[in-house]
Design goal:
17 helices; UDP-N-acetylmuramoyl-L-alanine:D-glutamate ligase; 3 domains; alpha/beta; 6-stranded mixed sheet; Rossmann fold; Protein-Tyrosine Phosphatase, Chain A; about 450 residues; globular
């Protein structure tokens, strides 16, 4: 019996452990941190041995294979020891791919992955496909492969997951939405290495597949020139979106869609990519148009909360880098009161300076250390205030806004100074806004 060691006991690690146990492996799960009670219950119920708060080297290095959580970087001593011994290391998406014949639609990119994944899933689901949603969103891919019998999957995948694929992860349809600076600490601060990681999504694709790319993303286009891509390549562009209609050209036919569920040029691109995937999967333009009218975006991503005194409040807490904020600021014609701040991720704000000057009337800094944001914008935005309280941030923003304005929480930063995570930040902001209603 082959032994497999699972490193990391989150959603993906626990799912991989269950799938491995079902496929006859001797399984050992190890987490350097503490394991959430819900996952302990599952592991105990399936008689899967595990440890927390440590990695027992002898136990792990006796494995024939390791499945690694995407959150664990290669510079961790345990991973170095595993690789030095020559033990194969796989990601959960690679491991699960061995045990399914489903068609995979894999979606990556620095920004827009979640929105595009949800929309792609919605378009196929509404048109009768037997389809699952997994990866960074939805269920563990491995657990779903074990428990369900889907014909198709939409998988939101990160560069970290792609770093540890081998020959089994082979999408039928894949897309790279954009490649902008993020997580560069995992890639020796190299955009080139980061881009190559993203492009691994296509390395095992077959000739009859479809690889969807952003024509306006310079990094993606440059990376494309350095790869031999087997499947057909299709391109989307923001120029095909005018706010009310979206033109999508696919296989030399141009389709026009209206009653669009999402706003902004960036969402024009997200919708184009999802529509191309749906067309490739065999859905008619009429079926796509009908499904578009019933789509609702995810929480914390350009989520319209409510209107108070004719001021629209928008929760974009998931925007944890500058590029995501650029998309958000460019989505509105109205003046914006921008709520930003948190834990800086090495942000360079010059790329949004012109947008802030054009669209932002006031900034509310919600964070413990706001000096970088203040110094970046104090010459172009006269009204900047600070707070460490989300309720106060919402109140200040409302006081700065006039009828017809937008209050936009789009932080550009991680959340860990004041919140558990970006979801907690968004949830608290939503509650604070709703508490302001008369």
């Amino acid at each position: 019996m082959k032994k497999i060691a699972i490193l990391g006991a989150g959603e993906s690690g626990t799912g991989a452990a269950l799938l491995a146990k079902a496929k006859g492996y001797q399984v050992f799960l190890s987490d350097k941190g503490m394991i959430a009670p819900k996952y302990k219950e599952v592991l105990n119920a399936h008689d899967i041995p595990f440890e927390e708060g440590q990695h027992t080297e002898a136990e792990i290095l006796s494995a024939d294979e390791v499945v690694k959580s995407p959150g664990i970087p290669d510079w961790v001593p345990m991973i170095k020891a595993i690789r030095e011994k020559g033990i194969p290391v796989s990601s959960e998406i690679e491991f699960a791919s061995r045990y399914t014949n489903a068609n995979l639609i894999a979606i990556t990119g620095t920004n827009g992955k979640t929105t595009t994944s949800l929309l792609t899933y919605h378009l196929l689901k509404e048109n009768g496909f037997n389809i699952g949603l997994a990866g960074n969103i939805g269920d563990s891919f491995a657990l779903s492969v074990l428990e369900k019998a889907f014909d198709w999957y939409v998988l939101e995948v990160s560069s970290f997951q792609l770093d540890d694929i081998h020959e089994h992860f082979s999408p039928s349809i894949a897309m790279v939405l954009n490649i902008t600076p993020d997580h560069l600490d995992r890639y020796d601060n190299s955009m080139e290495l980061y881009a190559k990681s993203k492009f691994r999504i296509a390395e095992n694709m077959e000739e009859n597949g479809l690889f969807i790319l952003n024509r306006e993303d310079e990094v993606s286009i440059e990376e494309l020139s350095e790869h031999e891509i087997r499947p057909s390549v299709a391109f989307f562009s923001a120029s095909n979106y005018d706010g009310d209609k979206l033109n999508v050209t696919f296989e030399s036919i141009t389709y026009t869609f209206d009653n669009l569920p999402l706003k902004g040029p960036h969402n024009g691109m997200n919708m184009s990519a999802a529509i191309m995937a749906a067309l490739k999967a065999g859905i008619s333009a009429e079926g796509i148009q009908q499904a578009l009218t019933t789509f609702k975006n995810t929480e914390h991503r350009m989520e319209e909360i409510t209107t108070i005194d004719e001021v629209l409040f928008v929760n974009d807490s998931k925007a944890t880098n500058v590029d995501a904020v650029r998309y958000a600021l460019d989505s509105f014609d109205q003046p914006i009161v921008w709520i930003a701040g948190g834990v800086d991720k090495g942000n360079e704000y010059d790329q949004i300076e012109s947008l802030v000057q054009k669209n932002v009337k006031a900034i509310v800094c919600l964070g413990k250390d706001n000096e970088k944001i203040k110094s970046a914008f104090n010459k172009i935005v006269k009204d900047i205030q600070e707070t460490e309280d989300v309720q106060e941030a919402a109140s200040i923003a409302l006081s700065k806004a006039s009828k017809g304005d937008v209050v936009l929480l789009s932080p550009a930063c991680a959340s860990f100074d004041l919140f558990k995570n970006y979801m907690d930040r968004g949830d608290q902001f939503r509650a604070a806004v709703l508490a302001l209603r008369p």
